[in-house]
Each structure stands twice: as structure tokens, then as C-alpha cells.
Design goal:
The chain has 14 helices and 10 strands. It has 404 residues and is an alpha+beta fold. Strands 5-4-6-7 form a 4-stranded antiparallel sheet, covered by helices on one side. The model has no long low-confidence stretch (mean pLDDT 84).
Length: 404
């Protein structure tokens, strides 16, 4: 059950990301062609105001289709009409004229040639599959050449629409952190809120509601409690608590290393913050996490830095394990994952959002489009780097699962 919830949570963050692209595109007058809940073939769909809304067969994440991400070129027509051309060789002439116009960048002329090709396809003797493929090709090219196509939009619109995906993930994280701060995730107290079963604290006899007053006989403030446990280095520690008006010294117990830190397995109750305080704390926390993630990226050249990378397998595993610690703990992790997705997508690599933003800005400075072949070469490098990061993270996750 935990695994299912963790997967659904990650899919929900992807849906939030895509929804950011979609709503922003509509807001700036750039009309997407499709928005789907889930991925894969659509099992249900409806069209409103030129936008197809659907539900994918696999209920994970979402998908938004914005027409004309790139200026179409001649070889795009080859892919769209290859089957029709095999069945009706007489289509070669209108297809070649269309390709010449596309390669010359003559948009209006290409649209006229596309209309002529549409008529030729309607008159040709084609099988059902060839007709379907050709009709889809005509529609794709017509969308890519139209005035609503992404590549024809002002630079600011393109940057805003692409940036909206990561920005929505970041805003979601900030809002979630603020809500948790208001629900008692603010300044820590010395009162135990939760004791995790099977952990050292439970073995020592710590109970929810206990008030920790000393560690190893030395009085501690709330902020010092986790630091004292961490600094034990795994040596036995003795907690002194107030319970029912009495002071009780619990049995010594060894902290266990968990996610890189020594812990006993309990959570302290937090003070609820007001909305303004919670908002400011969440913004500060976002800044701290952003800085730490940026520093982690700079450490990738070192072996220890690469050990910090995790794939979707590790993300789901950590989320699933955190659910054992309660809903609040899971929501904190979900917020951190949302923020991580935002920052990862802003890396200046194609096909990530950051790569599209970078190329849009370059085109704005150059005042002309970057050639498709450049996009494709840079995308190949970007995809290779992203896959490399994924496989390094997957290797780390497999090692952690195996206990290495």
C-alpha cells in the first residue's frame, strides 16, 4: 500500500508540472492541442475549444501537447507521409514541393502546398491505415505552421510557458511546507510527538508525550536534542524524560544510522506557526534546500558526490519508507521531491525545460532561430547526460536496497 501511495505521489507531482505548462500556455494565448491525465493511449477523451482533454490508460502523471515546438523541415514530411507515398507514388510531386518550401523556411507558401497535398491525398487510392497516418501528418504540419505554433511565439511567451512547469513544482513545495509549518511543523519543542516502532527509542521505552529534559545527564534545549544524538557517533545514550510529573531515566540505547545520520527513531512535537511566519519559514527552507541541491550538483565530479544521486526507484523507496513514520513525514518528503523536480528540470540541458529556456534566450539574442540540426545534436548530448545520471542513481539505489 505504501509503495502505491509513493508512486501516486510522484505521478501527482509530474501532473502538477504539466498543469503549470498547460494553464500558462492558455493564459498567454498559446493554445495547446492536448492535455491528458495519465500516460499512454487515451481511454476517454473530449474536445473543447480546440483542446483535446483525455484520460490515459496508465494513471501516472500527465501530458500536455503544444504544437510546433520546432519549425518544421522537409524530412518531417518524409516521416508523416512515407506510408501514403508507398501506396500512391503520384503523391511524390506535392510532397516534394512541400518539402522544398519547408526547408526554405517559407511558412505561408508551405501552408498553401500543404493544402494542395491534402486535396491530393483525398483523391488518392489509399488504405485505411495510410489515410489515417497521412491525415495525422497533415494536421501535425498544419499545427506546426500555424500562428499558434510554439516556435512562432515571442521569446517571452516561450520562456514563460516552459518556466511555468518547474515554477509550479516550486510553488507547490513552498505551499506544502507552509501548510506543514502551520500544522505543527514549526519550532521544535522537547515533547515527543511520535516514537517509531522497532527503533532504538522504542526499545529504550520512550513514549509519545514524554518531555526530554536531558541526554546523558546534561540538560538540553529542543534544538540540541538531534545534534547530541548525532554527535554520539553511535555510542549508547541515556535519555531523561518527564512523564506524568515524574523524571525518568530511560535505559541507555545505541542510535542507529539512518539516511546518513545517527537517530533514535522519534519525532519532536512542533509549535504551530501563523500563516505569515509559516510562509516566511517555507521560503527560507526552500532557499536552503536549493543551495544544498546546487552544491550537490557541483560534487558530481567526485565519487562521493555521485553517491548522493538517486533515481525514481530510490525516490519511491524513500517515500514509501517515510510513510511508516506518518503522513506528515511523507508530506515533508513529497515537498522536497517537488522542489528537486523543479530544480532538475531547470538544468540547461535539452530536452529538459532549462534547455528549451536557454535556446529561446539564445534565439532572442541572435534574433534568428537556431537550426534544427543544432537542436538535435545538443538534445542527443543532453539525453545521454540525463540517462547517465539516471543509471548512476539507479546503481546507487540498487546498492542501498542490497545493503551495500
Amino acid at each position: 500500500m505504501n509503495l502505491t501511495i509513493a508512486i501516486v505521489g510522484l505521478a501527482g507531482l509530474i501532473l502538477v508540472h504539466e498543469l503549470g505548462h498547460f494553464l500558462t500556455a492558455l493564459a498567454v494565448g498559446m493554445r495547446p492541442r492536448r492535455f491528458a491525465l495519465g500516460i499512454g493511449p487515451l481511454v476517454a477523451k473530449t474536445t473543447r475549444n480546440g483542446v483535446e482533454y483525455g484520460i490515459g490508460a496508465i494513471p501516472l502523471g500527465g501530458y500536455v501537447k503544444i504544437p510546433g515546438m520546432h519549425r518544421p523541415i522537409g524530412r518531417d514530411a518524409d516521416g508523416h507521409f512515407a506510408r501514403a507515398l508507398r501506396e500512391a507514388p503520384e503523391l511524390v510531386s506535392p510532397i516534394e514541393r512541400l518539402k522544398r518550401r519547408l526547408d526554405a523556411g517559407e511558412t505561408d507558401e508551405a501552408r498553401r502546398e500543404l493544402e494542395e497535398l491534402r486535396k491530393a491525398i483525398a483523391e488518392a487510392s489509399l488504405g485505411p491505415e495510410a489515410i489515417k497516418a497521412a491525415a495525422r501528418g497533415v494536421q501535425e504540419l498544419d499545427d506546426s505552421l500555424g500562428r499558434e505554433a510554439y516556435w512562432r511565439q515571442p521569446i517571452w511567451k516561450r520562456v514563460v510557458v516552459i518556466f511555468a512547469g518547474p515554477a509550479t513544482n516550486a510553488v507547490f513545495a513552498i505551499a506544502l511546507f507552509a501548510a506543514l509549518f502551520m500544522l505543527g511543523g514549526g519550532k521544535a519543542t522537547r515533547t515527543v510527538d511520535q516514537v517509531l516502532p522497532g527503533r532504538p527509542a522504542a526499545t529504550a521505552g520512550l513514549q509519545a508525550g514524554d518531555r526530554i529534559v536531558a541526554i546523558d545527564g546534561v540538560s538540553v534545549r529542543p534544538g540540541e536534542i538531534p545534534l547530541r544524538i548525532q554527535r554520539s557517533g553511535g555510542r549508547p545514550v541515556r535519555l531523561t524524560v518527564e512523564r506524568g510529573g515524574r523524571r525518568i531515566a530511560l535505559d541507555p540505547v545505541r542510535p542507529r544510522k539512518d539516511q546518513g545520520a545517527f537517530r533514535l527513531g522519534f519525532r519532536l512535537r512542533g509549535e504551530s506557526l501563523s500563516a505569515p511566519e509559516a510562509g516566511w519559514e517555507s521560503i527560507q527552507l526552500t532557499g536552503i534546500v536549493t543551495r544544498e541541491i546546487a552544491l550537490a550538483l557541483t560534487r558530481l565530479v567526485h565519487k562521493q558526490g555521485r553517491k548522493e544521486i538517486s533515481s525514481t526507484v530510490g525516490i519511491v523507496q524513500v517515500s514509501s519508507q517515510t510513510l511508516d513514520e506518518g503522513a506528515k513525514a511523507y508530506l515533508w518528503v513529497l515537498g522536497l521531491i517537488s522542489l528537486s523536480l523543479a530544480l532538475f528540470n531547470l538544468l540547461p540541458l535539452l530536452p529538459l525545460d532549462g534547455g528549451h529556456i536557454t535556446f529561446s534566450l539564445i534565439e532572442g539574442v541572435r534574433r534568428r532561430a537556431v537550426g534544427r540540426e543544432v537542436y538535435e545534436r545538443v538534445s542527443a548530448v543532453g539525453i545521454a547526460l540525463v540517462l547517465l545520471l539516471f543509471f548512476v542513481g539507479l546503481s546507487n539505489d540498487i546498492g542501498r536496497i542490497g545493503g551495500d
